[in-house]
Structure formats: C-alpha cells, structure tokens
Amino acid sequence: MSRTIGITTAERISTGLVEGRELVGKVRVHEVEAGAEPLLSTPPTGIAQTLAQEIAAVARGSSIDAIGIGMPGIIQDGLIEESPNLRQLKGINMRDLVSEALLEFAIKAPVFVYNDANALAAGLAATRGHLDRFIRVWTLGHGIGFGIYPPRPGIWEGGHTVVSLDPRERYCGCGGVGHLEGIMGHRAMRLRFLDMEPEEVFENALKRDQRCVEFFKLWHRALAAATANSIHQGGPGKFFISGFNAKHLDLNLMRQYLEEMVKMSPLQGYALEVAPSTDENAIIGAAVSAAQSISPI
Q1: Closest CA to 293 of 118, 147, 135
Q2: H helices within the chain, ranges in order?
C-alpha cells in the first residue's frame, strides 16, 4: 500500500499523510495570522520552502512514495502556466522548486503538482467511492475553481467560463469580461459591493434588500449557466459544490435555473450535491493523484 503525502493550498496550507485512500493521523495546518492569505505576498522560493517544511514535519523521517500538491492555476507537468490569484507563480515550475527544497530534509520522493480543484475532485471520488466514474466539482472561494476526475486532456478553467455578455462585468481576477468568477468569487463580490462584505450581501438578501436579492439571483443563475455549459459539452453526471461560500447556495433555486437551461432529455441525468469544505478531501485527493501518477490504475 502506497504511503503518500497530500497538500492543499486552497484556503490555507494543510498537509497530511495518506495510506492507500485513507488519512493517517491528524492534518497539519500551517499556522498563519487569522484572516491572512499567506501565499499572496510570498515569493515562489518562499512558498516552496514552506511546503517542504510542512512535508518534512508530516513525513517524520519515514519513507514516502510520492507527494501531491494542490495549487490554484493552469498547471502542466509541474509548471504553473497561469495563476490569476497567485500572480507571482506564473511561469514557475513548483515541482522543481519543492523537490529542490526537500533535499535539505533528505526527502527524494517524486513531487507532483495539480490544480487544487482537480485534487479536491480526486479526493471526493476516493472518499465517496466514485473512482470509477466522471465527476465535476465547483469550489466557491476567493476565486472559483472547477475540478474533474478522472483527469482528461484540456485546461478546464471553468471559473473563467463566460456567463454574461454585459461589458460592465469586469470583476474577474484575470481581467476577463463576463466570467463566472467575476460574479461569484469572494474578491469579485468585495469589488462589486464596496459598502458591505459578501456575508452581509447574502444576509441582506434574506432580509429582502432589493439590490442584494437581485445579486443573489444573478449569483445562482451564473453558476447554473456554467454548469449547463459543462453538461452540454461533457454530458450529465455528478456535480459537487464545495468551498467556504457553498454555504450560501440554494440548491432548489439552482436546479430551477438549470431546468430552464438544459432541455435535451439525454442531458437531464445530472445531480448536484453540496460537499463540506474540508482539508481532508483535498489532501486525500492530492495524495491519491500522486499515487496514481507513479502507479497508474
């Protein structure tokens, strides 16, 4: 049975040891100042060093077969080609940087870097018994992630799906117009509502504040539109919705909008489920993906 280490950097740096498909012991969380986003102002070498330290702390000198790291952005063979939410990582090969940093701790296990939403998709597949089927995951956080399992060729930046033709929709972190992330992303909502925090927007929508109610509908319709686009391109199936802002989701409203958008009967066999936003699923997914990278199923 493989012994792998998984790391997620989606909301904080969390690391765990995984045997097979199960977490061993407790998750190690890199302590940072409350409310801080530790990676935003850290140079790539600093991030690599921090990850190496966390890996070494979890490994505790034991033999490790592989290491999987989930990070935001377009990632190909360890190279971060683009990362709108961590711009300093563009063009950086994090696999090589982390591998080099690990030499200080005498760890030579192969390192693999995956899109963090894909890592979460793998974790949900592993923990829900879905390793034999195609699943998709939306992560609603500072940005909007879109993960798939099993991996398929393509970019899969679903958070940048164009869901609006309004030229005023310019809130996406990548600078693109009309993107899903520009409507649903936490940072985008802060830019849109300069007079209140996203939590207050949803609270005021429940109090029937008209401006917030209209945005609440737009927020749901945007996710339904992006999901409908995915269904029309990849077919029906299971969609998980996770991330710290998934708690605001009204599944009934989203299903109502999806029913308006997906009309062809062969495409209507989709299912939606809100998945708890836990580090464990993403850690297991990154570790399982790494294990599969050295020993493909």
Answers
A1: 118
A2: 44-59, 94-102, 116-127, 181-184, 186-192, 198-206, 210-234, 251-261, 279-294
pLDDT for 34: 43
Cβ–Cβ contacts within 10 Å for residue 21, how many? 19
Measured CA to CA in angstroms, residue 123 lies from 107, 137, 148, 186, 295 at distances of 24, 11, 11, 24, 17
| Mean pLDDT value across residues 119-133 | 93
pLDDT in the model for residue 35: 43
DSSP string, 218-259: HHHHHHHHHHHHHHHHH-S-EEEEESTTGGG--HHHHHHHHH
Neighbour order of strands in the sheet with 14-19: 22-29, 14-19, 3-8, 66-71, 111-115
Nearest alpha carbon to residue 234 among 290, 158, 143? 158
**In angstroms, rounded to a whole number, what is the distance separating the alpha carbons of residues 192 and 214?**
13
- Confirm whether pTM is higher than 0.70: yes
**Residue 61 pLDDT more than 90?**
no
Is the per-residue pLDDT at 38 higher than 80?
no
